[in-house]
Task: structure prediction
Amino acid sequence: MIITLIDIALLTFMGATAIAILRLRSLFAVVMLSGIYSLLAASMFVVLDAVDVAFTEAAVGAGISTVLMIAVLALTGERERTPSHTPLLPMVVVVLTGAALIYATFDMPAFGDANAPVNLHVAPRYLNESFAEVGLPNVVTSVLASYRGYDTLGEVTVIFTAAVAVMLLIGGRKGDDAGIKKEPADDTEPDDDGGTA
Amino acid sequence: MFAVTAFAVLIALGIALARAFMGPTVFDRILAVNSVGTKTVLLIAVLGFLTGRPDFLDIAIVYALINFIGVVAVLKYVKYGDVAHSGTSEDG
Result:
């Protein structure tokens, strides 16, 4: 009951934040509000008992994304241009896609259903025998580090490659004046430092 | 008891959100984001006790750290116009 009320309050806040993001034209405020949205989503994940997902959402969504978006704002303008086309067609497409997705959820098993396929296949074995087989008290850690060890190794390789590529792209430009030049937009005032990366 | 605390935190969250929506100046919004982050930390802590599992307290502490880093980056942008400015340190 209490948890349900907290769910409703958090979802209301998230909806209000999303609408405010849509209506604002100041991109700085939009970045701030998307950070707030991410924090609210992280709280929602904690309420739903997905603590590790909430952790990732807070670190990536509220932390890194906000910093990256602010860095992008330093290179571009702070105002969003008023769109020249009417948003009717995208609205129809989005509503139809959303309706199709909601229709698809009717085929899914109920939330927390004990007879759902995800709770019947390998989950009982993980829950019952992972401590004897792996020896870690946290089942999620056992699954990630042992049962799906190769999968995790592949993910780490992908992230490492991405980090190396980003460092090659960004880190090699120190002292180089050929950074990204700011394109003069018609409704933004120029920065004082030229906007080099 | 914890339920009342949770609702008080939610109300404070709503007030901070309203300031973030309206906030005429940049600093209103930064302060609103910071206080929303603080309220999230409090909400997670209260939720841990509400559901009888206070193990999530360390998650709340990590949230507080993330909140701090984000606000530092935003303030650097507002002050210098650039996140990578070497006013204080190299990393943003």
Notes: Chain B has a mean pLDDT of 81. The helical segments of chain B are 2-22, 26-50, 57-80.
